[in-house]
Amino acid sequence: MSKGKFGVHGGQYIPETLMNAIIELEKAYTFYKQDKEFQDELTELLNDYAGRPSRLYFAKKMTEDLGGAKIYLKREDLNHTGSHKINNVLGQALLAKRMGKTRLIAETGAGQHGVATATAAALMGFECEIFMGKEDTDRQALNVYRMKLLGAKVNVVTSGTMTLKDAVNDTMREWTKRVEDTHYVLGSVMGPHPFPEIVRDFQSIISKEARQQILEKEGKLPNAIIACVGGGSNAIGAFYNFIPDQEVRLIGCEAAGKGVDTALHAATITKGSLGIFHGMKSYFCQDEYGQIAPVYSISAGLDYPGIGPEHAHLFDTKRAEYVPITDDEAVDAFEYLSKTEGIIPAIESAHAVAYVMVLAPTMKKDEIIIINLSGRGDKDVAAIARYKGEDIHE
Amino acid sequence: MNKISEIFKNNKAFIGFLTAGDPTLEKTEEFILSMEKAGADLVEIGIPFSDPIAEGPVIEKANIRALSVGTTTDKIFDMVKRIRIKTAMPLVFLTYMNPVFVYGVEKFFKNCHQTGMNGIIIPDLPFEEKDEVLDVATSYGIDVITLIAPTSKDRIQMLAKDATGFVYLVSSMGVTGVRSEIKTDINAMIEDIRQVSDTPIAVGFGISTPVQAKEISKTADGVIVGSAIVRIIAEHGENAGNYLFDYVKSLKDAIS
Question: Can you tell me the ipTM of this complex?
């Protein structure tokens, strides 16, 4: 029977070669999820190593400038390794350790998840290999070097569109080659069950903290949570504990690239259709024959033709909304947050900031928005400079 | 007994694979007939997919080549219709779940039935998700081939019990591709399967030489060769017909 369903989405569409590994993972996770010792060790790592809880910062200047809702930033960018990715990676690496695995493999787009995985591998003594599309190793060269510095081997993926999708393909292929001693640290709320559930649980600490923090600061729940969405891990983490609070709007910002009316975008909810790929049933950018479309975004982390099954379900049930944000809008927001608050956001997170620049002025001054600032933008500075026509190289 | 099972009667079956539309659908038609003439008992026709995650680089590149010349599922059905007039050899598709799902499961298997296909292999459709296609496929008389892998272990009997057509026994870990050595204990797996099923067993992944094929066929009912064939097509392009004939004949002779 099909497992891990979110409405019609989810499931386990993977080769037989991987089924026993997935079943083993599911059993281990079910056990350790309830295991106090495991959870205590994870909490200690998250607090003392990754720097949690992350701050909920009131962006006063941005709020005044936009003249509408009060804007708070959930500062996942201040985590060790510079993004929310570390939350999931520490959890999965600890799980892999308990399962007796000695080697971690992972895909990465912008390199954030690759850096986080390489970091956890260094910390816990795993062998580590990262798969990254050639397009992305070119635009995120600094992160490639970071991973190497941390002791990981970086495999440059030259198949297909040479981006995140192809990196996932090659990591899955690698896992089928060597599954006994290897754990695949999937970086987003996607892939076959139980990954969407595991990654969501490890990322849900974002909304667990944010809900408590906003109640302490404001004495009430926010009106909207805004997060960028590629596969959707930071967004699901930011949404999850607010899902039962029907009055809180949950808004995911997907990459519209050069525009949703062009071929150059990665706006899965806006333009995609139901399909089965990368182990899951969900929405994908694809053609009438089910060929996965080559997608595009300035942001390597959002440059993915699918979306996690739980997001697809939140969209179907209208619990969450998804809006497209173009490259230009994201770059404007990248510069805006830098100049207004002195915070350089990851270009991924800038997609969420961009939507808030539109939304906040339409809201009342006693209303509240939380932006999940999923990562910091140091990695993007050179690429944005080039986008703006400056000849800067790392 | 259905048509696929018949090829295993008093015969060690040779099963060849190629990607439809590589280099063109006209050539695919010709290559299938060359392989039949050389002794192939069944041909797997790959419907190309943009992201074939169970394939190694050789077949992955063939998928990309086929798509780049405009090969579509509809055009492949047209080719099958044409080839069915010329051959009675059983034919099965190999493709991924998404091309079938997006085409429409009902429409896909109806077309399989009408054009004369006999079965389908879907590498990313494990036992747990087989309901996605099984009832519809069965209602149109299309066998959904069961894949069993070296890691299947305690799952073997569950998988093999209801297998129809043939059991596709994956010889090695990893993706498709030529291997110099196959390390899996295939004989032990074959014994496990035979305990619960009398469905014929064909072994694939990594087989390319007559010596390997002969060794496998001692215990298996058939051998499956994919990447080695696709490599010949990649190398010789439109002129691959004669090379395919010689190659397939050398393997079929080795197992006969």
Answer: 0.96
Tokens of B79: 């080719």
Mean pLDDT to the nearest integer, A302-314: 97
Q: What is the largest CA-CA distance in chain B?
A: 46
Name the percent of chain B lying above pLDDT 90.
92
Q: Are A189 and A232 in contact (CB under 8 A)?
A: yes
Query: pLDDT tens digits for A45-79?
Result: 999 999 999 999 999 999 999 999 999 999 999 99
CB contacts under 8 A, A 11-70 vs B, are 11-21
* Residues near B18 by beta carbon (within 8 Å), at least 6 away in sequence: B28, B31, B32, B35, B43, B44, B45, B46, B62, B226, B229, B230, B233
**A173 Cβ under 8 Å from any chain B Cβ:** yes
* Average pLDDT of every residue of chain A: 96
- Cβ-defined contact of A173 to B98 (cutoff 8 Å): no
Ordered by start, the domain boundaries in chain B are 13-255
Contact A17 B173 (CB under 8 A): yes
Active site residue A107: yes
pLDDT above 80 (res A96): yes
Output the six-digit token pair for A341. Answer: 């608050």
- CATH code matching the domain that covers B13-255, chosen among 2.30.30.60, 3.20.20.70, 1.10.510.10, 3.40.50.620: 3.20.20.70
For A357-372, how does the pLDDT look when each residue is reduced to its tens digit (9 = 90+)? 999 999 999 999 999 9
pTM: 0.96
Query: What angle is formed at CA A171 by the lines to CA A170 and CA A174, rounded to 5 degrees?
Result: 85
Q: Are B165 and B92 in contact (CB under 8 A)?
A: yes
